[in-house]
């Protein structure tokens, strides 16, 4: 585990999950970091567009239209061995340092 690495505030790094976190807050933080990848963001926005057009089900209820909304699809999994590449910014460094005990980092 690489916890002593000094990050450049605008560097690009590849992170690998060395062990799966146990607390749900740590899982959410790593998932949020993984979802910052451009290809994942594009996939999520494509799925959101599809849900808005076709997957949400409008139904009449008490004379009004109610929309039964589909749940969001998760495109990332927080498991040991999964890796992701991020371009860092000073804004996300505190989140990254809080879960660094579960990640291995190397420059991309």
What does this structure look like?
With 108 residues, the chain is α+β, with helices and mostly antiparallel strands. The chain folds into two domains: 9-35 and 76-108, Ribosomal protein L30/L7 (Ribosomal Protein L30, Chain: A, 2-Layer Sandwich); 38-75, no CATH class. It contains three helices and five strands, in the order βααβββαβ. It has helices spanning 24-34, 38-55, 93-98, and strands at residues 12-17, 57-61, 64-68, 83-87, 103-107. Strands 4-1-5 form a three-stranded antiparallel beta sheet, with no helix packed on it. A two-stranded antiparallel sheet has the order 2-3. Strand 2 (57-61) and strand 3 form a beta hairpin. The longest helix is centred in the middle third of the chain and has 18 residues, at 38-55. It is elongated. The two termini are 17 Å apart.
Structural class: alpha+beta
Q: First CA to last CA: what distance?
A: 17 Å
Number of domain units: 2
Shape: elongated
Radius of gyration: 18 Å
Main sheet attributes: strand count, strand direction, barrel closure:
3 strands, antiparallel
Order of helices and strands: EHHEEEHE
CATH arch. level architecture of the largest domain: 2-Layer Sandwich
What is the fold-level CATH name, i.e. the topology of the largest domain?
Answer: Ribosomal Protein L30, Chain: A
CATH class membership of the largest domain: Alpha Beta
């Amino acid at each position: 585990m690489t916890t002593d690495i000094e990050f450049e505030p605008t560097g690009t790094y590849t992170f690998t999950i060395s062990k799966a976190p146990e607390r749900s807050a740590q899982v959410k933080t790593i998932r949020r970091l993984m979802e910052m990848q451009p290809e994942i963001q594009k996939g999520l926005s494509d799925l959101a567009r599809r849900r808005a057009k076709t997957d949400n089900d409008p139904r009449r209820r008490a004379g009004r239209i109610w929309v039964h909304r589909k749940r969001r699809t998760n495109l990332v999994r927080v498991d040991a061995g999964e890796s992701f590449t991020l371009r860092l910014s000073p804004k996300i460094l505190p989140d990254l340092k809080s879960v660094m005990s579960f990640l291995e980092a190397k420059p991309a």
